[in-house]
Specification:
mainly alpha; 143 residues; globular
Length: 143
């Protein structure tokens, strides 16, 4: 059972990575247009896929009011802000824009910077379990 659970978890991790990879493709498609409608389309497609999965597997998720509010804030403020800044960095109408590869490396290296700052501020204790996932071979763009 544990082996099957690990395989399912790995499948979800791969699906998540693929979904995050679509942001650059959407940014290219939306070149010159506003990012919010493109992101709304992305979220709609994701909701349809996730809803279809939940119906097909007959799994239901109970969400309490507090969790719904946190998820909405995270999605509407955190993710939309991050994605909008990513689109802005790729905007071809602006002079001195950054290539998508460099932009992606900068944007998705935030776990490294957050960890370094947390260690520097002594909010986290140094452990190998904290550091190993941040090694270069597991960072975006290192392949």
């Amino acid at each position: 059972m544990e082996r099957q659970s690990n395989a399912v978890g790995l499948g979800f991790a791969v699906a998540s990575a693929v979904a995050f990879g679509t942001l650059a493709i959407l940014a290219r498609i939306a070149d010159g247009s506003r990012p919010i409608p493109v992101l709304a389309l992305r979220f709609l497609l994701t909701a349809l896929i996730l809803g279809g999965y939940l119906v097909a597997t007959r799994r239901w998720v109970e969400l309490h009011r507090g969790r719904i509010i946190r998820l909405l804030l995270l999605g509407r403020i955190g993710y939309v802000l991050q994605s909008s800044l990513y689109f802005l960095a790729l905007d071809t109408r602006r002079r001195g824009r950054s290539p998508s590869s460099s932009t992606a490396i900068r944007f998705y290296s935030y776990p490294v910077w957050a960890t370094v700052l947390a260690l520097a501020a002594r909010l986290e204790r140094f452990t190998w379990r904290l550091i190993v996932p941040l090694w270069p071979w597991q960072s975006p763009g290192s392949a």
